[in-house]
Design goal:
The chain contains 5 helices and no strands. It has one domain (2-132). Helix content is 61%, strand content 0%. The longest helix has 26 residues, at 2-27. It has helices spanning 2-27, 34-48, 51-65, 73-84, 114-132. Bound molecules: zinc ion (ZN).
Amino acid sequence: MAGLFFGVFPDLIFVGAALLMSINMFARSREISRQRLFPVVRRVYAVSHSLITVAVFGIITAIVTGGFYFPILGWLLHILLDIYTHKGSPVEPQFPLYPLTYPAIKGYIWWRNPYFLVVNWAAIIALYLLMNGPKLPIISWG
Ligand SMILES: [Zn+2]
């Protein structure tokens, strides 16, 4: 369950930042615009999608708990998938080692591509069924 949480954690952070900024602008009766939001949200996205951020978090949790905190592998997987599935998106190129801006990686596909969506969800369902599906009887040939 914690692994699932960390699997969506990077996106929760930047969407949360966009929401908080929008609420703040609304409360100050300022126009909520993409031009004002994007530079900050882009930076929050880069920080939450940086392997360096995950490494720092991993080191801190290892010091605090005395061992590797496996649920953050969900965060790592999220970043590795995002790097190649944001072709043509506003967050392209991806900076997986932010604050370093090298490498700057352009994606291979946009995750909203219908073919990718079908393959992605089929893989998720297949993996779920493999791990949680009914046990099949083992047929002995002997
Ligand atoms: Zn993401």
